[in-house]
Amino acid sequence: MGIIKAKNLIYHYIKWDEEEKAEEISEAVRDVSLDIETGEFVAVLGHNGSGKSTLAKHMNALLLPSEGTIWIGGMDTKEDETLLEVRRTAGMVFQNPDNQIIASVVEEDVGFGPENVGVPTDEIWRRVDECLKAVGMTAYRHSSPDRLSGGQKQRVAIAGVMAMEPECIVLDEPTAMLDPNGRREVIRTVRDLNKEKGITVILITHYMEEVIHADRLYVMDGGQIAMEGTPEEIFSRVDELKTLRLDVPQVTELAYGLRKKGVPLSPCILDTEALVKELVEIKRQRTVQ
Ligand code: ADP
Ligand code: MG
């Protein structure tokens, strides 16, 4: 069993009327099964309302399944006894860094979580040093979070989650409120956590260009997993992605169009550099012939 495994997970939000009768039921997650291995970098894509956040909240027991089961580190999230352990195993990073930063000095904010659960002081400082370094924010350790850019704040929030030493980190649209620079900083940080620290990463986003480095993607639609595969596999199904209302990166769409016209490009081109390289090679081969 992987570090996160869901089997036939269903979740409905219920709105109660005054007589405590269920008035309205909206099924936000419909029969989702997935398996994520330790050390994987998995991205979950989907347009607004497709059920991504509802699924994410099951990954550290903020929501419990209406039907079906989800296991985190082998623990069923419905078991009360292991609830804290589930939350320790999977850390969550949300959209808005302002809601996640508590202290008035960066280093205190990062140390807040471990302090709260009684980690010894020396160990707290060791973790604060290590986590700030990992997200590239050591130079700002004595700063006030108010003075940081959105991307920097989000990196501090990530360091705060890391300081709890979770085995996996679930990030729910961590770049949604950031400018392009901030987005790049955060995505790079997340990649490093995965590659260098071996932390399992679940990155939820609706920006396709953020998922090209993931090992595997799930695409959600209407509460279900509509597609699953490597970025190369998924990105080569441009027409399907468009029916799921996802924005395909321009360069990928261009390459797709060229392929349809008979240019022998590889099935999926994810960035301009790759496209140029392949086109130059095709041109070179044609000149030789
Ligand atoms: P996403 O994160 O992909 O935008 P969500 O998981 O937030 O999707 O929402 C999935 C569906 O559940 C949507 O139809 C949304 O309107 C509904 N939903 C989300 N949160 C609530 C809530 N607290 N109460 C009722 N319905 C909700
Ligand atoms: Mg959401």
Largest sheet: 6 strands, mixed
- What does the average pLDDT come to? 92
Count the helices. How many?
10
* Major sheet: arrangement of strands: 6-7-8-3-9-10
Radius of gyration: 21 Å
Please estimate the helix content.
25-40%
Order of helices and strands: EEEHEEHEHHHEHEEEHHHH
Which percent band covers the strand fraction?
15-25%
Distance from N terminus to C terminus (CA atoms, Å) equals 53 Å
Low-pLDDT residue intervals, each spanning 5 or more residues: none
Shape: globular
What's the total number of strands?
Answer: 10
Specify the structural class.
alpha/beta
Bound small molecules, deduplicated: adenosine-5'-diphosphate, magnesium ion
Description:
The chain has helices spanning 52-58, 83-89, 106-116, 121-134, 150-162, 180-197, 231-235, 238-243, 250-260, 272-288; strands at 4-16, 22-36, 41-45, 67-72, 75-76, 90-93, 168-172, 200-205, 216-221, 224-229. It is built from ten helices and ten strands. Helices cover 38% and strands 24% of the residues. With 289 residues, the protein is an alpha/beta fold. Strand 4 and strand 5 (75-76) form a beta hairpin. The structure holds adenosine-5'-diphosphate (ADP) and magnesium ion (MG). Magnesium ion is lined by residues 52-53, 172-173.
